[in-house]
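Now for today's protein:

——
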Amino acid sequence: MLDFLFVYGTLRSEFENPYARRLRAEARPAGPATVLGSIFRIAHYPGYRPEPAGEVDGELWQLNDPETTLAALDAWEGPEYVREQVRLTSGQTAWIYRFATQPSEGARIASGNFCAP
């Protein structure tokens, strides 16, 4: 199973929610990373979509036990998000949580960085 996860929102290391802390406990940071696509402000959290074109900044994490960690994160993300594989701009493949529906263009975070909108 793929053991890398790209995070762009409230799972990033800047956040102190229970699932961000769990990710830090169950994975090793692999550094900053970028994917093609866009992020949108959904509420107090963002959602990733592969379109429209843009770049999304985030972090790459290598999971110690992908099946266990991803099962917990899948449950937390809920039906609003679909976990899928994405190719980073570096060429590496990782899991990402894609928002299931297309938000309005007005909700787009133009910088592509949830922590520096």
Q: What stands out?
A: The chain has a mean pLDDT of 96. Strands lie at 4-7, 27-36, 38-41, 46-49, 55-63, 81-87, 93-99.
